Amino acid sequence: MAVANWRTINIDLFDSESPANFDVASLSPSVAHISAAEVQSLSGQVKQLLRGGDSEGALRGALENAPYGGDAGAKEVHLATVVEILQSIKQSEMSPMLSRIYGSDGGIETLDVLMKYLYKGMSHNSQPTLSSSRTISPQPTGFSQIHSRGGGEGGGQAMSVLLSWHEKLVEIAGPGSIVRVMTDRRTV
Fold it and tell me: Residues 105-112: contacts with CB within 8 Å, 24+ apart?
């Protein structure tokens, strides 16, 4: 009879439902690659709808064609397009528009994508980027001046718009949208 140290046997290898036998790659959804040129083209089409006065169509077009498989540059271009659309919509039109989207086919998923863009826009605006031409000048107060006068105020306006959209979106879609966005592995 063979003598085996039973304490060193990995019993998870014998259980088919064990996490050790689980393919971790299946957790990440497969997304098709999209080029920056395709995102630029989509951005132009969406902006054309916006200039034509169809802000709801522009918002739907941008949200339903999120570039999950794009590179960082393509995603930044699309984020800028979505934020531009959100800034162009009046506050009085937010709730009715979100209600119409919520009631349509695929509306919940569309609003979840909007929530992703709101969070990405908030995180993007909260971290000022320093270009090579800007220098940080120390101030007598002990604080550093990162932006020139008035340089950081545009981000505050965008943040206000994003927070207003967030409030209206949670009213319409509920807090479940936040949970779905936080657990989804696809990033915008």
Answer: 106/64, 108/173, 108/177, 110/60, 110/63, 110/64, 111/169, 111/172, 111/173, 111/177, 112/173, 112/177, 112/180, 112/181, 112/184
Q: At what angle do helices 55-64 and 36-51 cross, to 10 degrees?
A: 160
Structure tokens at 163: 């927070």
Residue 9 in tokens: 């046997």
Per-residue pLDDT reduced to its tens digit, 105-125: 999 999 999 999 999 999 986
Interatomic CA distance for residues 171 and 181, integer angstroms: 16
127-158 burial: b if 16+ Cβ within 10 Å, else e: eeeeeeeeeeeeeeeeeeeeeeeeeeeebeeb
Q: Which residues pair with 137 in a beta bridge?
A: 145
User: Would strands 137-138 and 144-145 be described as parallel, antiparallel, or unpaired?
Assistant: antiparallel
pTM more than 0.85: no
